[in-house]
Amino acid sequence: MDEIRLGIIGSGFMGRTNAETITKYLPGVRLIAIAGGSRAQQLASDYGVECDQDVECLVNRDDIDAVFISTPHSEHAKHTIAAANARKHVLLDKPMAASVEECDQILDATRRTNVNLMIMFGQRFRLVNREAYRLIHEGAIGPIQAISTYALNSGGLASLPPWQSLPENLGTLFGHGIHNIDQIRWFTGDEVSTVAACVQREAASGNEVSTMAVLGLRSGGMAHVWVSWTIPSPNFPHSGFSARIAGESGILELDAYGTLRLGRDRSWAVIAEQAPIDFRGKGMLDPVRMEAYGAQAQEFVASIRECRRPSVTGEDGRAAVEIALAAYRSAKEQRTMILK
Which tens digits make up the pLDDT trace of 285-303? Predict the structure, then answer.
C-alpha cells in the first residue's frame, strides 16, 4: 500500500490533535474527511478536507483506508464496529470502550474483518516513558517489585470537558487513569490479578473526582494508582503523569512531562528530559506535545503497511478497561476483586 488515506471520527480536542498529527507528522498519508461532533464542519474547513454528514457515511467511503476515532467512550464500540464492518483499520482513543463486553464486541468485529486495531495509549510514545521502558527491559533496575503511579490535578471536574462527567463515560480513573493502568502492564509485562480501590465523589453530582487503587500482579509484584482532580493548588510538583518504580537493584523516578532519573549504586543519574509544553504560547499543537502523537500514528500506519499487529493492541485496551472497572466495583462493594 502506497499512500494511506485517513478519516477522523470526532472533532473535539483530540479530533484537532488527530488532524494536526495526520497532516503534519505522517508522511505518505492523506487526510480525506472528518465526521462526528458539533465542531466537525469547522475542523474540516480548517484542514481543507470534506465534512461527512455522519459517521456511517465516512466509514463507507471508498477513498478511506483507516480511521482515527476520538469520541466519548460510550460511543467507541458503535463507531469502531461500523468502521470494521466497512473494512477500515482503526486507531481508537482510550479507554477502548465503556464495558468489557463492548471491548469483546470490538475485538470480534476487527478479527472477523481482519483489520488492524490500535489503542491510543499515547503515553507509551512519550520520550521519558519510552526511555524508562528501555531501561527496565535492559535490566537496569532488575525485576520490578513495585510501581506507584500518579495523575494528580487541580481545578476539579469543571476543568474537564462536560461530557467526561456524564454517567455513561464513568469517571476520571476510566478516562485518564487508564493511562496509568496501561503503563503498569507495559512496564512490567505482567497481568493484574487483584484490585482494591477507594473512590471519592463530588457531593453535588456524585461524580468521581479521586481514586486510589492497589493492584496485585501475577508475578507477586504490586502497583498503586492515584488519580485526582481535587488536589489544592499549587498541586504536587511533577505529578501530572508520574511514577516511582522499584526494582531489585535500582529505582526509577519519572515525570512524563519532565525528567527521568535512574537511582543505582547510591546515586541518581538523569537519563532523559522532555522539553516543557508551551500551552500558553504555542498552544495545544506545540510540537513538543505533538511528538508523541506523531510517533503513535507512525506505528499505526507502519502496522498497516507491514501487515502486522500494532505494538499497542485491542487486547491491551481490554485489559485496562477490565482493571479500571474492577477498581470501581471494588470501591462500591468494599472488597478486593480477583481477576482471572
Answer: 999 999 999 999 999 999 9
Whole-model pTM over 0.70: yes
Instruction: Please return the burial class of 40, using the count of CB atoms within 10 Å of its CB with bins 0-12, 13-18 and 19+.
Output: buried
DSSP state of 54: S
Sign of CA dihedral 24, 88, 174, 11: positive
| Backbone φ, ψ for residue 278 (5° rounding) | -90, 75
Place of cell 512519550: 126
Bridge partners for 263 per DSSP: 251, 268
3-state secondary structure of 313: coil
Q: For residue 176, give the DSSP letter.
A: I
**Domains plus CATH for the chain?**
4-115 (3.40.50.720), 124-291+320-338 (3.30.360.10)
Please tell me the predicted confidence (pLDDT) of residue 156. Answer: 82
Instruction: Cite the DSSP H helix spans in 26-75.
Output: 40-46, 55-59
